[in-house]
Amino acid sequence: MLVVVAHLHGIERKYCTTDLMLPFEHGALGIDLFFVISGIVIASVTTDKFGSTRNAAIFLYHRLARIFPIFWIYTTITLIARHLNPLSTGADHAHPVNLLASYLLIPTQRPMLLLQGWTLTYELYFYLVFFLLLLLAPQRIAPWLLTLWGITVVGLKLWIGLSPYPLIQVLTSPSVLEFLAGCLLFHIYRRSRLHRAAGVLIVLAAFLWLAAVLAYSHHVHPGQPNWIADTPWSRPLLYGTFATLFLLGAIELERTALIRYLPLLASIGDWSYSIYLSHLLVLELIARLASRLLPGTSDSILIITLISLPSTILVGYFSYTFLERPLITRLYKPTQRQPVVLMK
Questions:
Q1: If 0-12 CB within 10 Å is exposed, 13-18 middle and 19+ buried, where does residue 266 land?
Q2: How far is Cα 155 from Cα 304, in angstroms, rounded to an integer?
Q3: Residue ranges per domain, the chain?
Q4: Average pLDDT by consecutive 10-residue portion of the chain (344 residues)?
């Protein structure tokens, strides 16, 4: 939902004369939360499964089945919208795209047809690295190899900077450090138990850090909040530090039962992938309708926002219920074995 709010600023600039949503550009840190969460999840589902061809194959199949089918559906919807042009999608005719790269999440210098697909490219290659580790590395060696990956990212970025090759850019991006931070968080959570008050203190530290980042950004880069997201090292340092602290505190709070998360938040978490894939189409549609019905209104972005936020959640719910979850259920369904009849 942070990403949705961040993209509302782009909608405002496109359809309105105001700039009220400018501070919400910092909602881009939702992507950094996404990368750290991904590291936590992948570390949790691969624990004690290294050095096994079968485990590696199952892991890769599940990850590909989780990402691609619903992604292909929304990429195709975007392709149709781009062709018919009833909506001006983010990747319009002024931005040439590579269709094969867009469908297979291949790193490229061109934008994805579904613009937010660039984050899934990073996700996919995180999975491929873990697949190789599961296939080739014993459990005791895997953490050292992940540490080496992080050191290599830092060393190469400081030494050669930005690589001209998109695949190398992905595998050596500072965003890798956020994914590795998530892996580390899982092992901290699994191997140690912090003081009951630790969750509160860590979450408080996270928000104090974020407040300092926002204050610095407003003072040094007024009117340009996207400078963090556009700077490779600033992003993991500023947004990534917040994401790591916040998530560590959140899981500790959950473990100690000091707070209980609302069921609605857990449900939105279930729908989040569908929300992420569909929200730009929803925002564009609502903004187009609003700009025609309320032309030149200074409050247009407020009305668009009030309609868009519940609409993106609602579309995410329907997408998850009728598309994503049935696909997952079918694709994850284990092979049915014939019953064995024992006879004397």
A1: exposed
A2: 45
A3: 262-331
A4: 95 90 94 97 93 94 96 95 66 72 93 92 96 93 94 83 81 94 94 88 97 96 91 93 96 86 91 97 92 78 94 98 96 57 38
User: What distances in angstroms separate CA 116 from CA 71, 82, 215, 273, 276, one per listed residue?
Assistant: 11, 15, 27, 11, 8
Structure tokens at 150: 């992080």
Q: Distance (Å, rounded) from C-alpha 102 to C-alpha 76?
A: 10
What is this structure's pTM? 0.91
Asked whether 232 and 174 are in contact (CB, 8 A), the reply is yes
Nearest to 286 by CA among 3, 20, 8, 92: 8
Amino acid at 328: I
Measured between alpha carbons, how far is 10 from 90 in angstroms, rounded to an integer?
10
> How far apart (Å, rounded) are the C-alpha atoms in residues 98 and 36?
28
Give the separation between CA 332 and CA 344, rounded to whole angstroms. 36
